Amino acid sequence: MIGWIAGLLGCGGVAATPAEPYPLEFLEASPDDREALPLIVAIHGNNGRPERMLAMAGSCGLRARVLAPRAPRETPNGWTWFDLWTANPERFDAPEAVRMADLLAETIRRYAADRPTVGAPVVTGFSQGGILTYTVAARSPEVMSAAVPISGVIFRSMMKRDVGKPPKIRALHPELDPQAPLRVVQKVVEGLREEGVDIELEVVEGVAHGFGEEMRPAWCRTLASVLPR
């Protein structure tokens, strides 16, 4: 069962719905709305679409409910969460990314409470969605059981202290990604590991920036390994 839920940002021309007070719009899919199921939150990247994340998650064949949030700003090719400085792919609008991560955490919290959910949600995302996955894990660890960021990074200034230990993180990264260089991601992983975070990094060899068939097998396998039973 698939459907749109209207959020409170007033973006995309969709009115807010009093019965569903979510701070973002999203697309949801569930084999059965009444059954208690694990929840996967799949966050699209820059110029991305929630429909794509929903289709990718569906292709994994996992029995789970899927929540695919939609970014608030429309672009010619899709939707975006925050600004990127393309002259330097290691830089982006970190304060806005933090704001979006906090909104996502609130959406996840309300959604998981409203639906029959097994365990805490698993949050995953690609590129900007990977950045947001790391950031939600660091700032609101209580809303998830595991994080699976793809092509994402996080910087210390984006983290929040005294919020509890982050959940386990199983990061995936394309070896040849020019948008989020592997050397930067490796430093992020090393730093989090030194702080006691349960984090692993799998590098997908020979792949550049993209979320297609090259990344899908590793992503589906990783999701299956962390999904609550």
Task: Report the mean per-residue pLDDT as an integer.
Answer: 88
Biggest sheet record: 8 strands, mixed
The CATH homologous superfamily is termed: Alpha/Beta hydrolase fold, catalytic domain
CATH class: Alpha Beta
Give the helix proportion (percent range): 25-40%
List the helices and strands and how they pair.
Elements: E1 2-5, E2 26-29, E3 39-43, H1 50-59, E4 65-69, E5 73-75, E6 78-80, H2 94-114, E7 122-126, H3 128-139, E8 146-150, E9 168-174, H4 182-194, E10 199-204, H5 216-226
Parallel strand pairs: 3-4, 3-7, 7-8, 8-9, 9-10
Antiparallel strand pairs: 1-2, 2-4, 5-6
Summary?
By secondary structure, the chain is an alpha/beta fold.
